[in-house]
Amino acid sequence: MAEIEVKDITYVYGKGAPYEIKALDGVSLTFPHGQVTGLIGHTGSGKSTLVQMLNGLIKPDSGEILLDGKSIWEDPKKIRDVRFKVGLVMQYPEYQLFDETVAADIAFGPKNMGMSPEEIKEAVEKAAHFAGLSSDLLEKSPFDLSGGQKRRAALAGVMAMSPSVLVLDEPAAGLDPGGRKDILDGIKKYQRESGTTVVIVSHSMEDMATYCDGIAVMAKGKVVMRGTPPQVFSRSEELTKTGLDVPQITKVALSLRECGIDIGKDIYTVKFAAERLLSGGAPYES
To answer: Rounded to two decimals, what is the model's pTM?
Structure first.
């Protein structure tokens, strides 16, 4: 397990040009080891820029990125090693598939890490399992797969490197509800069994509520809110002001509250709402 932390990070696109944009403005945030942290924010809030910094794809203009207390830029010549430890799955990663077979594509990272053929085979099979790919798909061309299967193959390619930190930028974007659930269930299972620290960027409040241990909210290049799902989603008015929404079940709970049935403002999943209703309502004045 590993912990990754950003300290007072700033970054400007087009620095010195008339159109320069401050993407990150003094961001400090810790992604605790062995937890799933959700990163949410309106388009342009700085989420994607931040996650690309976690494995050194982008270098901050100022501030530090610490992996287990050590700056990832302490020795720039070793940034490649950081990318093996901090695996990044970009949005629509299926566009990055390139090899002749699914197995060969998944094996690309482990080969570059110097694993033995036996280790590579084991890593590929294990990653395919977590990503939800059946063994009969491994010898197919990745270009013969469905959209959801391609997404799983790309995800497996990062999982096969056994990163200490797994960073996912909209991993379920564009998938139907069943596909979203399959992908995210697999990620959560992988995290629980491996102890990997996971960071997920998503626009889906329901996904954040269901799969994350903690959530950080970004707006205009800053972190404006952080906490557990109930702590964050109980602040619905503040979220709305940043251009975000809350899970549908949170809206239902707020409507019930207005009708005199108070089960709390911190409801964020259907299961949690049912438990609160069965227990007799809100445990405290909220």
So the answer is: 0.86
